[in-house]
Write a structure and sequence with these properties.
This protein is an alpha+beta fold. The protein has seven helices and 13 strands. It has a seven-stranded mixed sheet with strand order 3-4-2-1-13-12-10. It has a six-stranded mixed sheet with strand order 5-6-7-8-11-9. Helix 1 packs parallel to helix 2. The protein is globular. The two termini are 31 Å apart.
């Protein structure tokens, strides 16, 4: 890009809610999404919850003419659900899977089985290097008693660290995705403060769409109305964030959201509303340096708040680890007692087996099952404790640096 010419970039972001066999009218909605993307000719398309590779292949076949470059990020048991379509060549990709992502025994939520991750693609447009990130963080199922808040904060911290450490060679950073956090939540403030990313909604010169930029609204026929009762207008949990790193400026000229039903249809594209941003990128006269996320005293407060929440999660994880360890020991003792009783009977030392052989066998199988389950959960919570401890220590180190050397933050 030469002189003061401006590059315009149109970005589309959507959580597609395409869970095979579970999402309502999934195939029809995926076709609608593909048709709309073909009509609109965006430059970048960032999608989440495309859990089926069959759906991705169908989209890729339909969009190949408009978006000749694409990538599907694979991770976890059922995948990351993340994919990107681009009008420009993808030079490189990278995936980071979050270290914590819910609990395997919370089957009704299922987040643990998904490979929640952040995907990175690198593209170059008119000589400008873009690091484009797409992600999907752990869902918030109950705002009043959010058992997953520590895990989501760990994910937000790892996302911020991943962006900081992988974007140093980029000119512009873009992040799109379902962050499952309200704009005022500590996780969003931590992510934006530590990376310097700007919110397209708050920065947009022109906005058109749902009130307050909400992306989960009661008027959508697929949303769960009871969960949105405290929020009559809906909630904003899907974002497009951006920043310039080197000698460029980025402005959000326009931001739009969908508003329920797809045009001419009786259903929306998803249970989430899409976010569409038009960014203008322009070269400055001299390098701007690395932008500051927020004032250091405010950043210290945000990191401190996040560290306290992670500490609460750490205490809960330690208690769970202790409980599962104790249960495993009790099951092991029961097995040992049964083994001693069985050996005594065989040696003729017993006065008679108090239980029938069937009851004795069932009790043994039960003890073995409890032992295996408790041991597995003990190991899981041990890993959880270590990840939470590691994040807490990283935050403590950042706080020390910010307080001792503010200009280095």
């Amino acid at each position: 890009m030469e002189g003061n010419s401006t590059l315009q970039l149109r970005i589309f972001d959507l959580n597609c809610w395409a869970i095979r066999y579970l999402s309502k009218r999934r195939q029809e909605r995926v076709r609608l999404i593909g048709d709309m993307l073909c009509r609109e000719h965006f430059d970048l398309v960032l999608l989440q919850e495309v859990w089926s590779e069959w759906d991705y292949s169908g989209l890729n076949a339909k969009l190949g003419g408009c978006y000749p470059f694409s990538h599907y990020f694979r991770s976890g048991v059922i995948g990351s659900g993340l994919c990107v379509f681009s009008r420009f060549p993808i030079l490189d990709t990278l995936l980071y899977q979050y270290s914590l992502n819910g609990y395997p025994y919370m089957l009704q939520h299922g987040d643990w089985f998904c490979g929640k991750s952040v995907g990175l693609i690198i593209i170059k447009i008119s000589g400008i290097v873009f690091n484009v990130y797409v992600t999907h963080l752990h869902a918030e199922y109950c705002r009043e008693k959010d058992a997953y808040l520590p895990h989501r904060l760990v994910q937000a911290w790892e996302l911020a660290q991943f962006i900081r450490h992988t974007s140093k060679a980029a000119d512009v950073v873009l992040l799109g995705g379902d962050l499952n956090m309200h704009p005022e939540d500590v996780g969003i403030r931590l992510l934006r403060g530590w990376t310097g990313l700007r919110d397209a909604f708050t920065e947009a010169a022109c906005f058109e769409g749902c009130e307050d930029g909400c992306t989960l609204i009661p008027n959508n026929c697929f949303t769960i109305k009871a969960e949105l009762m405290p929020f009559p207008l809906g909630i904003r949990i899907d974002y497009i964030l951006y920043k310039a790193i080197s000698s460029f400026t980025v402005r959000c000229e326009e931001l739009k959201t969908t508003m329920g039903r797809a045009p001419g249809m009786d259903i929306p594209f998803s249970d989430h509303e899409a976010v569409m941003a038009t960014l203008h990128i322009q070269r400055q006269g001299q390098a701007a340096g690395v932008p500051v996320g927020m004032a250091e005293p405010m950043l210290v407060d945000v990191v401190t708040e996040a560290r306290m929440e992670v500490g609460v999660g750490l205490q809960a994880a330690q208690q769970q680890r202790y409980s599962m360890g104790r249960l495993a020991i009790l099951a092991l003792l029961l097995l040992l007692l049964q083994a001693v009783a069985a050996l005594g009977t065989l040696a003729g030392l017993g006065v008679g087996q108090p239980l029938s052989k069937l009851s004795f066998s069932l009790l043994a199988f039960l003890a073995i099952g409890v032992l295996l389950l408790a041991t597995g959960l003990h190991l899981f919570h041990t890993i959880e404790v270590k990840m939470l401890q590691g994040t807490e220590e990283q935050m403590q180190m950042v706080l020390r640096v910010l307080q001792e050397h503010p200009s280095d933050g």
